Amino acid sequence: MWKRWAKVILLNSVCSGLCLSAGANTTGADSDGAASFDSAPIVRTAQNDLALPPADAFPANALTAAPVARVALLLPLRSDTLAEAAAAVRAGFMAAHEREQDGVEVSVVETGDAPQDVLAGYAAAAAQVDIVVGPLSRTGVAAVAQSDVLDKPTIALTPPDSQDGEEVALPRQMLVMGLSIEDEARQVVSWAGASGKWSKAYVLHTQAAWQRRAARAFEMQWLKLGMEPEMVEVAANDGFLNGRTLLQLKKQIQGDKSTLVFAALDARQARQVRAILGNDIALYGTSQLNPFVRADANDAERSVEMNGTRLLDIPWLLQPDHPAVMVYPRLVVDPGHRHNADLERLYALGIDAYRVAHEIAAQHRDFQLDGVTGKLKVHFDKTKAHFERSAQPAVYRDGLVVSEGGAQ
């Protein structure tokens, strides 16, 4: 049981930042420790737009003038804990490459999850390609960002790890486009704050690291709006929350129409909160409140007690009829297995990562992309790469999560 929950926690951690076989020729280390590279054949899976810095923002040799840009996809496929997540990203990346191959040659570079292993893989890849996509782990991104080996355009797939919670200074050639739980929390503030209904927010979290990050991001953004946040840490045992704390909270806020609750929790924990607080209290959260993949959703699993709960998630899970979503094959799972929402998000991240890399390979500097992970904006200037993702508002209706057209 503990092994299963450990895997769930790790997937949450990567997403807050998800298996598919991708028939890519992956590369490991040769006997002398040097990485070897092969072009990745197209796989059975899998759309497009983003930008490069001004001409003087990269060294003259940062991108080749050749008609084909060489892209390395650097993933911890040899990691015991992150291999499944890495495989989902690879599958999405290769799905997008299969659809739009022109001008891009892809090699997959395998690493473990130790920072030094990631750094060695990155250095070997950067020496042979024009663009690097990766790493996937927070510690790996931090190791690359703080090293002196980064001299090629690099698309990091998660935010870097930070010891003190402060923003890490990034090299101007590094674009971070991971699925950040902190960014989602800040967007929830903008969404909820725009209504003008609430002045105070109770921010619920456990001791889980990703939940602390989301709660802190919400708290700081709520303060910026001049409103009052109150952090509430709830003890949890095997995923179950302390009911006494929630009952006490209910007494504090019952009947107060100027108060909302932000749940920096997972879906099961949020259901516990809803069951105790009731449906009269406004409840907001991140994508982690949505465990559903439409392919598997059924009446027996509907969470009607969550009706009215608002959250943010990505078009890939919310809008199957979205023009960008429709053109890619769905993530394939083994017979008898169910789709996993976190792995689906990482598969979608792989798709959009390729689309961004494709635009960078075309030496675009500013662009917007209606992506499968949200509306993306990319801008490079002389000092920094700027990335913004706008997630899709959603709400629980009839026990399932559905897209909501705008803030309410």
From TrEMBL:
Single GO MF annotation: enzyme regulator activity
Keywords tagged on the record: Membrane, Signal
Species of origin: Noviherbaspirillum autotrophicum
Coiled-coil parts of chain: none
InterPro entries in UniProt: LpoA (IPR007443), Peripla_BP_I (IPR028082)
The protein's name: Lipoprotein
Record-linked Gene3D superfamilies: 3.40.50.2300
GO biological process, one term: peptidoglycan biosynthetic process
Domain of life: Bacteria
Endpoints of the signal sequence: 1-24
Gene Ontology cellular component list: periplasmic side of cell outer membrane
